[in-house]
Every structure is written in structure tokens, then in C-alpha cells.
Amino acid sequence: xxxxxxxxxxxxxxxxxxxxxxxxxxxxFSCESKQEGNKLVTTSENNSAKPKKVKNIIFLIGDGMGLxxxxxxxxxxxxxxxxxxxxxxxxxxTSSSSxxxxxxxxxxxxxxxxxxxxxxxxxxxPDTLAVExxxxxxxxxxxxxxxxxxxxxxxxxxxxxxxxxxxRRMEEDIARFLVNSEVDFFAGGGLKFFNDRxxxxxxxxxxxxxxxxxxxxxxxxxxxxxxxxxxxxxKGMPTMIEGRGDFLxxxxxxxxxxxxxxxxxxxxxxxxxxxxxxxxxxxxxxxITELLDFDKTLGVALDFAKQDGETLVIVTADHETxxxxxxxxxxxxxxxxxxxxxxxxxxxxxxxxxxxxGSEIFGGIYENTSIYDKIKSFxxx
Length: 381
Known about the structure:
The protein has 381 residues and is of the alpha/beta class. It has two domains: 47 residues, no CATH class; 324 residues, Alkaline Phosphatase, subunit A (3-Layer(aba) Sandwich), CATH 3.40.720.10. The protein has 13 helices and 16 strands. The radius of gyration is 26 Å and the shape is globular.
């Protein structure tokens, strides 16, 4: 009996030793080591390191861009769509405070200031009280800011990032807000609201007095150290079909070159405005050409962010326009055709794409105001 007990004890001891060795081996292999300079660093140490901070944010808004519009960028693109480069995708609910179906003004007010307001509101609450925009909140911290649009720069979406008026129709008042804003770089249309005004004032002179370099003929190849005011058409920019060319991706690159010189970081809002206009017109060619232009601009933003390492890229829409659908062509499942169900907006949720440091918080389903909250969290503690 004692011999059996002794043998059992020896076997149990050997088993314990074997289990211990196996545990140590698993731990060592899970902490795969690599050499960094003269220091041996394990993977577990690397995983505990803090991720890179968000220094810059590029916020791209495809006005009127729903999921079917994004799908069209895949089907009608000669290259792989840049939407496929994003690793985090969410969904945003877009209703305004006044209506189930939002307009661009209320939608952009939610994105720029985190407040649900009525359709037509530009940077104001439902009681028409001014609410601070993200640009107004971060500019005092020394962060550079920019706004780009293929519409007039005084149009609803870009206006919500710097202006406060009760109606989106008040574009001359909106232009005055821009002159006195903290925006460092802006590009788009809307020249007439600065130099051909009903009140007779020439806001271009005021822009010059506020240290802006003004361009009204063409997009410059490079910028000076002055603030940049680029106004290349009286109202909205020409359509892609009319020959706008690469204004949006080139203006975005120009803005990134200019804004990235600031060591404190930057915030840039870029709007593909006329995706919405193609939807309103129920014109598939108009919509898709504008969408592909926006897709190309995403590539500029993503390439910059990849090289920079501290830039977060966010893409969303203020709402969907046209009830746009890609459907089978007369029952042929190998062919698609564009179908519209309305010439207005729809209440469908819109996608949110994010790539770069901090992108993980953009997954899920949430109100459009949450996008503002998430952006703000990177700049203001």
C-alpha cells in the first residue's frame, strides 16, 4: 500500500511540474518578443501602450448620401471604392426637432453643435438661440479649422459650422458671420453673397482686413501663410457633368497642406453638396458623378491620415435624398438601374464611416448629435 501511495505521489508531482512548464511556455509564446534598439519588448507590453492620440480630424459630409448612394460608388467606380478602406461603420438617425425628415440645415446643426433643431435652423436651438459650433469651441485652443463645399460656402451645411441665423435663406447674413469667424481656410462658391450684396457692402475688403488671401479665379497650387478665402463661383460650384473637374479633391489636398502646418492640430469639414442635388433632380447621372467625385476626395483624406498617423477621418451624411435605390433592371438580376421614390429627403438612417485613431467609438446606431459629441471628445476634455 505504501509503494502504491509513493508511486501516486511521484506521478502527481510530475503532473504538477508538467502543467507548470506548459503554463510558462504558453505565456512566453503569447508574449512574442521583439527587439527595439537595445531593449527586448514583448507583445504584451506593446498592447498595453497607449494608442496614438487624435491630433487632427477630417470630417466629410456627403449631403443626401444614403447607403444606396454608397453602394453606387462600388458599382459605377472604375477603381475600388474608397469607402471600402474604412474599418469602422455605424448608422446615424437623422430626424430634426420639428420633423421626422430633416433638412440639411437642421442635420448639419446637429453635426456641428450637437443640438436637435428645426428644419431651416443654422446654428441655433429650437428657440433660435445661438449654440456654439465645434469650430468655435476649438479655435481658442489654437486648433486650425477649414470648411470646403461644392455648393455656396454660405449654403446650409457649411454655414452650420460657423454661423447662427434663424433661416438658411439668410445667406448674406451668413456670409458676414464667415468674415468674422475663426475659420482659417474656406473654399467653394457663393461669391455674390460677399461682393454683390443688397446692402452694398463689399465683404471681400473685410476679409482682406482680417488677413485673408482671396482667390476668385481658380484654385491656387499652393498657399501663403495668410488665411485662405477661395470663392470660385457666384452661387454653387458647377456640376461634375458641367466640368467642375477635381475641385473637391484638390481643394481638400490644398487645405490639408495648409492646415497641417499647425502643430496644435486641425479640424476640416468637407462637403460633397451636390450628391443631394442629384437626388432632388432624380437624375442618376448627376448623382453618381457627384458621388464618385466625393469618393475620390475620401482617398485624399485617407491617404493623408495613413501617412500622418494622428488623423481621424469621419464620413457621414446629413440625410438621404431621393429615396434612391439600385434595383434589378426589368427582372434581370445581372443588371441594375437607379430608381427614385421621391424628389425630397427620406427618413432612412445614414451610414457613418471612421478610420484612424479613435475610430472604434463610431460603431453602432445613434442620433446624429452623437457624432458631434464624439468629435468634441477628442478636442475638449
